[in-house]
Known about the structure:
Layout: H1 2-7, E1 16-26, E2 29-34, E3 42-46, H2 53-61, E4 87-94, E5 97-106, E6 114-119, E7 122-123, H3 130-133, E8 136-139, H4 151-163, H5 169-190, H6 196-230, E9 239-244, H7 246-252, H8 257-270, H9 272-278, E10 289-294, E11 299-300, H10 306-328, E12 333-336, H11 345-357, E13 362-366, E14 380-385, E15 388-391
Parallel strand pairs: 3-13, 3-14, 8-12, 12-13
Antiparallel strand pairs: 1-2, 1-4, 4-5, 5-6, 6-7, 9-10, 10-11, 14-15
Helix pairs in contact: 4-6, 5-6, 6-7, 6-8, 6-10
Amino acid sequence: MADAMRQWEDMPRRGVFVRALTLTNFRSYTRASLSPACDAPLVVLTGENGAGKTNVLEALSYLAPGRGLRRATIGEVAKQGATSPWAVAATLDVLGEDVRVGTGQDMGASDGSKRLVRLDGESAPNSNVLGDRWSVTWLTPQMDRLFIEGPSSRRRFLDRLVLGLYADHSRQVGAYERVMRERNRLLTDKGRRADPAWLSAIEARMAEHAVAVANARLDFAGQLAGQLADAEDGPFPKAELAIDGWLEGLLADGMAAVEAESAYRERLMAERGRDIASGRTHEGVHKTDLVVTHAPKGMQADLCSTGEQKALLIALVLANAKLQSAIRGQAPLMLMDEIVAHLDGERRAALFEALAALGGQCWLTGTDRSLFAALEGRAEFFDVCGGLIQPAHG
């Protein structure tokens, strides 16, 4: 391990590094700043429970499209009692180029639910543009239940990973969901009196977005499966993936995209009666599930032990980061919240080495600095306490 650590400084940078970060009225912070030296790939935040470590990672997660690692609404991340909007500002080193990024709450919107984004001082139309230049991925303690919860959590996890390779994916998912809600409202309000031509037009738009979503998921899953299969044996087990979805199944069996769109339109038309009765759409890419199997045991992840599930989750995230690095030539910014607390020494060492080898920056949090003892002198440490984030010593 020590030899591998000594090589970190010589590893080429192939990812995103945060040079400066400022939080304003964000969660527990009125205002806080930190500026990593970026002379090591790993940044470690330590402090007591409730000190605000996860809030820092959440702020960093807003450097990507979407709702952040807690899936909070725009208003929920604002500091309680604040009289001005929240904001996150950062300077990033992206493959040697400095990029200034700002995002925050738009108080000009009637309900404060809109998010503003600026890149190098210029306003961006929406947060989707953040996925064009870099990606951000994360693991949180809440995700430890991923394999035993319902399919919606796994589907969101899958779509977040897909976004790392296909920046347009979140737009397609969002467009599909908006059109689906429009269809649901029409069926609920009008029932069988709904204009069939109007319904058909809505369903055609749904089918177009649904096929784009399904194709991206399948293509990504195939590439990730190859990355997992090529991985060396180690403390994080190999995983096998399957996409369980009606539309994905048609495409996986070789159906052309245009034929799949037609098939889905026909399915939606046939399901109108049932959808009117329930007030929701029963079939589509919003029902897809990600099935993960512990390859060495041939056992589905939900049947594995808690420790095995954690190891499988880490294996998936590492494989995704390696895939992005290979295809995009750029590793994602990694955010790992309380990731080492339940790993033994061997797995902690293997995780540190794997994260450092990606070539990008990874932020880790923990309450016990001793768990990061192997990183002393090889990572940047910050103490988080009392609303302050300060470089740690010793």
